[in-house]
Amino acid sequence: MIHLIKLCVGIKTVDELVARRAFLRDSGQARQDGLNRHRTRMTPKRREELLDGGSLYWVMGGKILARQKLVDLVDATDHEGKSCCDILMAPEIIRTVPRPKRPFQGWRYLKPEDAPKDISQGQDDDLPPELAAELDALGLL
After folding, report:
1. Do the beta carbons of residue 39 and residue 24 sit within 8 Å?
2. Residuewise pLDDT in 10s, the chain (141 residues)
3. If you count Cβ atoms within 10 Å of the first and of the last residue's Cβ in the chain, which end, N or C, has fewer?
4. Where are the alpha helices (DSSP H) in the chain?
5. Residue in 32, 17, 22 with CA at minimum distance from that of residue 68
6. Measured distance CA(129)–CA(141) in Å, rounded
7. Which residues pair with 59 in a beta bridge?
8. Model's pTM, two decimal places?
9. What is d(CA 33, CA 45) in angstroms, rounded to the nearest whole number?
């Protein structure tokens, strides 16, 4: 299994991502099957590993803050007729322990051992990223 990591361009918080998904759903712009879609130019080559329990980890405001489980990778064509890939994800947005991440272009693979842990129900997700990373490294989150 392997994950993807991607910048969530224009969105700085998990709440903004949740609101954006709700807007797309309520305005009829979302997929009819309830899955979330992210379109990307390049198709990941490690399809089988990604679909074997992988997630797309979202970087917002310089931190990894959330993930969504991958459901499928679908070849598509954009509005200009160019080939692209639709990354399909489960609609549930799972908050993760905040982890600082510098900007990068496109998506990258993320090894499971390098992925931040999920935040448990009731756990504080507003910790400063440095403190959360240190607590995570000590096994306290």
Report:
1. no
2. 999 999 999 999 999 999 998 888 888 777 878 899 999 999 999 999 999 999 999 999 999 999 999 999 999 999 899 999 999 999 999 999 999 999 899 999 999 999 999 987 555 556 665 676 677 666 666
3. N
4. 14-26, 47-50, 129-137
5. 17
6. 12
7. 7, 64
8. 0.84
9. 25
